[in-house]
From TrEMBL:
Residues where ATP binds: 51
Domain NAF: 301-325
Cofactor (UniProt): Mn(2+)
Classification via InterPro entries: Kinase-like_dom_sf, NAF/FISL_domain, NAF_dom, Prot_kinase_dom, Protein_kinase_ATP_BS, Ser/Thr_kinase_AS
PROSITE patterns associated with the record: NAF, PROTEIN_KINASE_ATP, PROTEIN_KINASE_DOM, PROTEIN_KINASE_ST
Protein name in the entry: non-specific serine/threonine protein kinase
Role noted for this protein: CIPK serine-threonine protein kinases interact with CBL proteins. Binding of a CBL protein to the regulatory NAF domain of CIPK protein lead to the activation of the kinase in a calcium-dependent manner.
Gene Ontology MF term list: ATP binding; protein serine kinase activity; protein serine/threonine kinase activity
Length: 431
């Protein structure tokens, strides 16, 4: 992380220069844990959006993992219809996402202002949405909160997907092949998520795309009710009505997008062959060529899939070290990318503590171990996050920074082991 020489306690003041790099113009929006500002780069005058997140808030609310994941995911996604992450900066109390500025605002405002869009206009946005979602899924990323509010427009009226805070990646899929975290916005959430029996992230995203398309062409949401219980019942049963102006081909597509059975719901590959989607001689393969060119120009190398080096970024602008040090309290915490198998990592920890007054207790899910004293008191944790078939992230935490024994145990045992486990590979530098 570059050393920053200038910051401010009040970003809301117009003209304030954040971290010596970005001059604040105006407040764009306020969320539960963040504020977003329009700003300009003082060096080149480029317009950017700055998402300001309070570390204290995300740690107290348990959202630190979501923020790390959002940084990681945006680092890996390079698509003309996905908001671009330029860099991430941090101070002791705040994290700053510097992202592409979408001058056109939210797609929600576009629909609200016109009540509904023509099918041709809606089709253009929908094609861009499907293109971006296909790109995400090909990288093993599932958005899980696609809605009008999270779709922005740039100055050329092109759609930009944003807000990946609730997204999931492949390593979150359980042994049954499903995701299990219940999340999303009520009116857009897929029925299988409500069933709480596990769901396919790609299928859930397709359902949300269907809700978006319906809202664009109808001017209202297909599922809506002040009573959440009634709303969920409508979603679960697939109860909605098409407005009278909906064309035959659009009805067919929406019926397949909003199919309550995920196993028969239309897939992205099938959407690309749909008559309504391809109206007017549209050629998706031309879009793919543009996507590849964009990705190669921005990164300098092709990203084949979401891997550990994309998740734990080593480039200067996206260095996450030091951002979450408060999580470990008064103890030690460090993480590395490793090429060792998770079970072998735990074995290495067991070998390392032989002769020390420490007991290693494996976690039931096999993703790590607890380090306990002989009296059963918790000393630390070793957690392993599987990212790909070859790579994992190893996180080690140890309590008691002020305790001399703990400090020596960390210095002489845990940290050297962590460095040994670290995967040695030349990392391509982006931008």
């Amino acid at each position: 992380m570059e050393k920053q020489t200038q910051t401010t306690k009040d970003e809301s003041k117009r003209g304030v220069v954040l971290l010596g790099k970005y001059e604040v113009r105006r407040l764009l929006g306020v969320g539960a844990s963040a504020k977003v500002y329009h700003a300009t780069n003082v060096e080149n005058g480029q317009s950017v959006a700055v998402k300001v997140v309070s570390k204290k808030k995300i740690i107290s609310s348990g959202f630190a993992v979501n923020i790390e994941r959002e940084i990681s995911i945006l680092r890996c996604l390079h698509h003309p219809n996905i908001i671009d992450l330029f860099e991430v900066l941090a101070t002791k109390s705040k994290i700053y996402f510097i992202v592409e500025y979408a001058a056109g605002g939210e797609l929600y405002e576009e629909v609200a202002g016109k009540e509904k869009l023509t099918e041709d206009h809606a089709r253009r946005y929908f094609r861009q949405l499907i293109s971006s979602v296909k790109h995400c899924h090909s990288r093993g990323v599932y958005h899980r909160d696609l809605k009008l509010d999270n779709l922005l427009l740039d100055e050329k009226d092109n759609l930009k997907v944003t807000d990946f805070g609730l997204s999931a990646v492949k390593n979150q899929i359980r042994s049954d092949g499903m995701l299990h975290t219940v999340c999303g916005t009520p009116s857009y959430v897929a029925p299988e998520i409500l069933a709480k029996k596990g769901y396919d992230g790609a299928k859930a995203d397709i359902w949300s795309c269907g809700v978006v398309l319906f809202a664009l062409t109808a001017g209202y949401l297909p599922f809506n009710d002040y009573n959440v219980t009634v709303l969920y019942r409508k979603i679960y049963r697939g109860q909605f009505r098409f407005p009278k102006w909906t064309s035959h081909d659009l009805k067919n597509l929406l019926s397949r997008l909003l199919d309550t059975k995920p196993e028969t719901r239309i897939t992205i590959d099938e959407i690309l062959k749909d008559p309504w989607f391809n109206s007017g001689g549209y050629r998706f393969d031309r879009v793919l060529v543009k996507e590849r060119e964009l990705e190669e120009n921005r990164t300098g190398f092709k990203i084949k899939s979401l891997n550990a080096f994309d998740l734990i970024s080593f480039s200067t602008g996206l260095d996450m070290s030091g951002m979450f040090e408060e999580i470990s309290g008064s103890g030690f915490m460090e993480r590395v990318v490793s090429g060792e198998k998770p079970e072998r990592i735990v074995e290495r920890v067991e070998e390392m503590v032989k002769g020390a007054k420490v007991v290693v207790k494996r976690m039931e899910n096999g993703d790590g171990a607890k380090l306990e004293g002989h009296e059963g008191n918790l000393l630390g944790l070793v957690v392993v996050y599987r990212l790909t078939e070859e790579l994992a992230v190893v996180e080690m935490k140890l309590r008691g920074r002020e305790d001399e024994c703990s400090a020596l145990f960390w210095k002489n045992k845990l940290r050297p082991l962590l460095l040994e486990l670290a995967h040695k590979q030349e990392v391509p530098v982006s931008r």
